Amino acid sequence: MRKKIVAANWKMNMTQAEAARFIESMLLDLGEITDVEVVIVPPFTAIAKVMEALGRAQNIKVGAQNMYWEKNGPFTGEISGPLLRDLFVHYVVLGHSERRILFGETDEIVNRKVRAAHEATLRPIVCIGETLEQRDMGNVEKILAIQMRGSLAGLNAKELQETVIAYEPVWAIGTGRNATPDQAQEAHAFVRHILGEMADDATAERVRIQYGGSVKPENARELMSQPDIDGALVGGASLDPRSFVQIVKAARER
Ligand code: PEP
Questions:
Q1: What CATH number did the domain enclosing 243 receive?
Q2: Among 165, 173, 216, 246, which is best to mutate for testing ligand 1, by the most ligand atoms less than 8 A from CB?
Q3: Total structural domains within the chain
Q4: Range of 220's domain?
Q5: Distance from Cα 5 to the centre of ligand 1, integer Å
Q6: What's the pTM?
Q7: Ligand 1 close to Cβ of residue 23 (< 6 A)
Q8: Which residues are the active-site residues?
């Protein structure tokens, strides 16, 4: 049985004070939660503050939004896996469509980062997803297979199991238009099928695949009740603690 994982991708938002207020409010509303894995992914500048605000709530993990593949050295402006581990970060989001589109990240670049993340004992959340044009042309499976085989190349079965995949159709991110539960389930089942080809069926069954793209309290339950949808990567709705907690609670209901 895969444990659901719900992550808040704050993107380039939240001052330290706002982050601390969010965590305080989230903890009050959420209470003790052990049946869903909750991950907060702040901007680098708020990571330490989030850790401090979480205090004893050690079941809630913290992620970073990006990293570079080198461990250290003359790479001005970059952050490495070991530097993130030094902050007790557990997860790192890699290959988000905003990074692919706005910052030119290719599958090869994402793959270097994914392998470096594993080397640093960080768990990558690897984002994949098609554009609207690619969907309209009937190329969803082709694009997902290319992105998976490229971004996850060279990982062994254990590393694959410790990787989270986020299926995020680009047309659904920040647009208010989510994939229907059927569209999302179809894509997730295909992603699991490719995982089976890349490793084996037992490995594929263990990998958690999140859905991302305009997840809100109103659609979260139906999306996450699909058999291959193992949680959500939430952007906009994760900036409001009440909405985010409602989405986490929706992950408990089947
Ligand atoms: C995201 O950026 O990963 C995302 C899913 O954003 P939103 O929830 O705002 O669509």
A1: 3.20.20.70
A2: 173
A3: 1
A4: 5-252
A5: 15
A6: 0.97
A7: no
A8: 96, 168
